Amino acid sequence: MVELAPRNSQARNLIGVQPIAIGVVALVLVLFGIGSIALWRAFTGNAPETDRMVAARQLQARTAQVSEALVEKTKGIEETQQESIDQLQVVQDQLQTMRKQFAAQQADAKKLSDQVAALTEQVEGLRQSLASAQANEPSAEPAPRTRSKATRSANRKRHGSRG
């Protein structure tokens, strides 16, 4: 048969007391550690929480400075970009004006070219007409004048007989 009661009741009592003692010793060690850490911080003046807060504040200050610097640089870039846009607009206006002037000059040049062509045609027409007129004339040398007999005899009678 199986015994339900333990054979050694003293061993059982010792096992039951041991975990409580271990727990008490662990609690004393934890309390001693916390106390020593508190004393060490109090006497050295070094508290990680304050260091962390100081570091966090410095980080926030740096972040604010960097943010302000970025805002200023962004504004500077915006101003530069606006100036560039304005300059580009001026250049485009000047280009448009130059295109209009160029178109006007081309129109003037075409007009002058047409006028020169018309004058050339008129000069050529005059040359041809002059050449035709010269070709229609019988001769360019004047013919010697011959007096008719009646004219000679009339002249002799008036002046008397000469020769």
Task: Write a structural description.
With 163 residues, the protein is mainly alpha-helical. 83% of the residues lie in helices and 0% in strands. It is built from three helices and no strands. The protein has helices spanning 9-44, 48-136, 149-159. It is rod-shaped and about 195 Å long. The termini are far apart. The mean pLDDT is 82.
Give short descriptive properties of this protein:
3 helices, 163 residues, mainly alpha
Sheet with the most strands? Answer: none
CA(first)-CA(last) distance: 208 Å
Low-confidence stretches: none
General form: rod-shaped
Q: Helical proportion? A: over 70%
Radius of gyration: 66 Å
Total strands = 0
Summarize model confidence as the mean pLDDT: 82
Number of helical regions: 3
How would you spell out the order of helices and strands?
HHH
Structure classification: mainly alpha
Strand content: under 5%
In terms of topology, how is this protein built?
Blueprint: H1 9-44, H2 48-136, H3 149-159
Short description:
With 163 residues, the protein is an all-alpha fold. The protein has helices spanning 9-44, 48-136, 149-159.
